[in-house]
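Possible regression after last week's pipeline update?

I re-ran a chain I had predicted before the update to compare outputs. Posting the input and the new output here so someone can diff against the archived version. Not blocking, just want to make sure nothing changed silently.
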Amino acid sequence: MLCHNYYQRPGGEDQVFRDEGWLLQSHGHEVMRYTRHNDDIHKMDSLDISRRTIWNHQTYTHLRELIRRRRPAVMHCTNTFPLISPAAYYAARAEGVVIVQTLQNYRLLCAGGYLHRAGQICEDCIGKAVPWPAVAHGCYRDSRPASSVVATMLTLHRALKTWSKVVDLYVVATEFARRKFVQAGFSRKRIVVKPNFVHPSPEPGSGRGKYAVFVGRLSPEKGIDTLVAAWQTLKGELPLKILGEGPLDEKIRAFAGSDPRIEWLGLCPASEVQKVIGEAAFLVCPSLWYEGLPKTVVEAYSRGTPVLASNIGAMREVVDHCRTGLHFKAGNADDLVKKARRLIASPEKLCKMRTAAYRKFQQRYAAEPNYEKLMEIYHRALRRHKNMHKEATS
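New output (post-update):
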């Protein structure tokens, strides 16, 4: 059983949910899906949303009925926030089903989900039983009332030991993310690293487009201001294509309108995104937050496209400096310009990076090695669940 709460704006987690469902079915597994969509929030009042975020009784009832009918071996959750809620874990546990939870962001440590606030990395809530700084700063949706609801959910389920006792295994995309959750008190033994993958696997691109590309949500934590400042300096040296939408749409519209070499393509079909990435000289990932594992980086590698990334969090691990791309100082537009010029001036080095990037994709981010790792995770969770049951009944 795959369990997922869709976001109002389509994102990487939604794609991971779809990809893993395809992966399992393509190997002959019977897959059922339990989903909710955040569009439903528009039909609810604030009190109803608050209750469901903390504990959705409807989820608990529906999931128990579904599990009794279908008897899945494993329930794998990609995202339960906010409408599915942690009630999903208790429904599965009541029916003896193994629970695996993927952690694509830092929601269990941070109400905002990013460990990022006011343009800076923020770890104020790590290690606190009650994440009161999140309420004080309005970290979720810039709202103290909304942040209070998320903080209540986190506090209650820490007290109930939902995160430490009910979920069998967690999946993170990088070693960096595992270290961060361990720092917050999660057991290292119960966190497994499995990266995301790309489906379908495209052929390497040519990289002959002679432009850079940014793909992602147009929001502050993605480093959009750094990107804009850097290309205002580069200007005619290198065209830039921007794919995506978000809160900073107007800023990007004005930016693109001021320079004919800047092209904003908005949201595009997946096939178009892959084509644009494959023809790019390199992908720019200027994030200011730690990131999980940006799907765009994996897509770039699948097309053999090097990545110019900020040297923060997971990006230090995912991008091999001078091999599959380059790092620059996070938030430093001047260093981004310097490293971009370095890539532009070294076509032979870029060619070698393309080969290394595609090789890394084949070894780590392709579907088949991902399936093998997913099966290892499920079997490990099943063994752990069985052993815990033996200990409880002995």
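Follow-up from reviewer: compared with the archived run. Residues 2-102+161-198+368-393 form a domain with the Rossmann fold fold (CATH 3.40.50.2000). Marking as no regression found.
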